[in-house]
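so im writing up the methods section and need the tRNA-dihydrouridine(20/20a) synthase record in one place, dumping it here so i stop losing it
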Amino acid sequence: MNYLSTIYPNKNHYIDQKNFSLHRKQQHFCRFSVAPMFNRTDRHCRYFYRKLSQQTMLYTEMVMINTIIHGKSDSLAYSEEEHPLALQLAGNDPKSLAYCARLAEKRGYDEINLNVGCPSPRVQKGFFGACMMKHAHLVSDLIKAMRDVTFIPITVKTRIGIDYHDSYEFLHNFIEVVSNKGECNSFIVHARKALLYTLSPKENREIPPLDYQRVYRLKRNFPNLNIIINGGIKTIEQAKIHLNHLDGVMIGREVYKNPGILAYVDRDLFNSTDCIPNSMEVVRSLYPYIERELSSGTKLGSITRHILGLFQGIEGAQQWRRYLTQNAYKPGSGIEVVEDALKFIINKNHVL
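--- predicted struct ---
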């Protein structure tokens, strides 16, 4: 018995249940997403983001497969309200990735994403992330191993190149191999190459020049694939421009800095008729969640650190941020700290 049948013993019995609706579901969700961000997009952050947008696809932080398999804490925990939700995995072993993907599917995740774009030295040392772009056949084996044991979409997040492997031909070959051999039909492409040995992770998000046209060219050459663009996108208007050429847009740091962007996604990108939420109401809608988390031992600051940018550009926002930062981690801090911080916001009827 091979490892796939051990993980999913009844695979053949269910194979006919795969259908096009899964692909359609993924196309809908991938139109706009928030990027996986280390030390940012944890479950508290994602719960908050879901208050701002019902349609946005949310991603976990990158999770190492060994953390899932050997870790003492539950690294797959999330709240049901977070859906649609994707788990981003980092790893290079087909058997272990298949095990984690199957476990994630059982836990209810809507998508599994393989990280082939992170440039950090720690990730390189473990042979994960962007360095795997040079090994398209291995990446395709990893994707295929996960596809063989799950019914949910398996996607790849990658760069346009790494180091001196930065030609369009290199990128084209990578996508071709992983889509054909790995049967992957969705790629999230950060439109910068990664310089693995000369730049820090932060510098790799800012210094290599953006090349949106290269990502557009990918879509023209692979019209049957879902191509989602990431990198340097700051506004909904910019997202709309990219959506004229591509299937989806992913924004990361700008959303974390100014989460109010998400309040316009459903209306402007998904034609929702729901009203844009009031920022004060958004904060107060978090209170039941905060109280539940506090009762289980979560520190208030672990939640409120994600909402600091909500009042970006509004009078009193600086005092709001300062008060929460100074008081949310104090022993016994609760809802009253958030209420006191809200008093600094001058426009109580502010619509995001």
